[in-house]
Design goal:
mainly alpha; binds protoporphyrin IX containing FE
């Protein structure tokens, strides 16, 4: 798949990870679809950063792709922590709330980073500047 499509793909995976949340789609199937989307997004960000690294794109784009990987890794860690505390340690409400906020903030950061990266790369590739 072409790189620009994979970059926009990350944006859509992040978007659907925000929409397909267990609270709305059910704790069983919904949770697993959510986790699979999150892991697919992480794998895609890794592949995209590798592809960008090999190109002569502006280094700003390479930096944004690395930051996106960082947020994607953090998101998996927060999501796993959130799930474990919510389901197995319900007597730790402060920890659950902190992890929920971190997971939510990270989701917004990923959407912002992935969107700007996809658009900037697309413009660079099409020489739209
Ligand atoms: C493998 C990665 C991920 C894991 C393990 C994970 C895990 C979880 C869990 C356990 C919940 C709460 C489930 C519940 O309410 O019972 C949750 C909620 C949520 N997740 Fe994830 N998640 C992952 C990736 C993502 C990604 C990539 C995004 C968006 C970019 C995302 C956005 C959200 C949002 C917006 C919520 C709702 C938060 C709330 O209830 O306030 N997650 N996630």
């Amino acid at each position: 798949m072409q790189l620009w499509k994979r970059l926009y793909g990350v944006v859509w995976l992040a978007f659907f990870s925000c929409v397909i949340i267990p609270r709305w789609t059910g704790a069983k199937a919904g949770l697993w679809v959510h986790v699979v989307l999150g892991l697919a997004m992480l794998i895609m960000t890794l592949g995209n950063a590798k592809s960008l690294h090999a190109l002569s794109v502006p280094s700003r784009l390479k930096r944004i792709s690395k930051v996106t990987i960082g947020f994607a890794v953090l998101q998996v860690i927060c999501g796993l922590g959130f799930g474990v505390v919510k389901h197995y340690l319900p007597d730790l409400p402060a920890a659950m709330q902190a992890l929920r906020i971190a997971h939510l903030v990270c989701a917004l950061a990923i959407l912002a980073q992935a969107s700007s990266l996809a658009t900037a790369y697309d413009m660079w590739e099409e020489k739209e500047f």
